[in-house]
């Protein structure tokens, strides 16, 4: 990966599209947004794979992320809560949480930051019908 640094932005031409990073979210993605997106994206991909192997079908999945940052000058990320909402038919709350725990243990992004950031993942089963 190559990053081009200017006064306004940091950009990288990736295979999918150009990534623009900025301290001003009207100009690009802020670094903490990318960190949280990496955690949520990795967890969701691993979780979907585990649910597919277990033949657990769902209609929709969303993730709500809450971020707690330190009050000091560094303003580092201290905690990220990823709350998954899974919508489907005949979903078992306990089984979904157990699968999510397994996903967290196998997500490379979450495991890369566990010493520095408290990552909590919860799931809510929403049964239709």
How widely separated are the two ends?
A: 47 Å
Q: Name the shape in a single word.
A: elongated
> How many strand elements?
6
Main β sheet profile: 3 strands, antiparallel
Number of domains: 1
Low-confidence stretches: none
Just name the CATH architecture: 2-Layer Sandwich
* Strand order, largest beta sheet: 1-2-3
Give the rounded overall mean pLDDT.
Answer: 95
Figure out the total of helices.
Answer: 3
Indicate the CATH topology. GMP Synthetase, Chain A, domain 3
CATH class: Alpha Beta
CATH superfamily: K homology (KH) domain
Provide the gyration radius in Å: 17 Å
Strand content: 25-35%
SSE-based structural type? alpha+beta
In percent, how helical is the residue content? 25-40%
The H-and-E topology, N to C, reads as EEEHEEHHE
Protein name: OsmC family protein
Pfam families: OsmC (PF02566)
Tell me what the structure shows:
The chain has 129 residues and is α+β, with helices and mostly antiparallel strands. It is built from three helices and six strands. The chain has helices at 31-53, 93-106, 108-113; strands at residues 4-5, 10-13, 18-21, 60-69, 77-88, 118-127. The strands form two sheets. It has a three-stranded antiparallel β-sheet, with no helix packed on it. The chain has a three-stranded mixed β-sheet with strand order 4-5-6. α1 (31-53) crosses α2 (93-106). It is elongated and about 55 Å long. The model has no long low-confidence stretch (mean pLDDT 95). This is OsmC family protein. InterPro entries: KH_dom-like_a/b, OsmC/Ohr_fam, OsmC/Ohrsf.
């Amino acid at each position: 990966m190559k990053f081009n640094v200017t006064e306004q932005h940091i950009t990288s031409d990736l295979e999918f599209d150009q990534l623009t990073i900025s301290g001003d979210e009207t100009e690009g993605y802020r670094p903490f947004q990318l960190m949280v997106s990496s955690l949520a994206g990795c967890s969701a991909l691993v979780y979907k794979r585990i649910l597919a192997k277990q033949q657990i079908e769902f209609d929709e999945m969303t993730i709500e992320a809450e971020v707690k940052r330190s009050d000091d000058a560094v303003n580092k990320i201290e905690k990220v809560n990823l709350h998954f909402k899974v919508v489907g038919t005949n979903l078992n709350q306990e089984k979904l949480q157990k699968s999510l725990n397994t996903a967290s243990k196998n997500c490379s992004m979450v495991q890369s930051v566990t010493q520095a950031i408290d990552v909590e993942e919860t799931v809510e089963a929403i049964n239709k019908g």
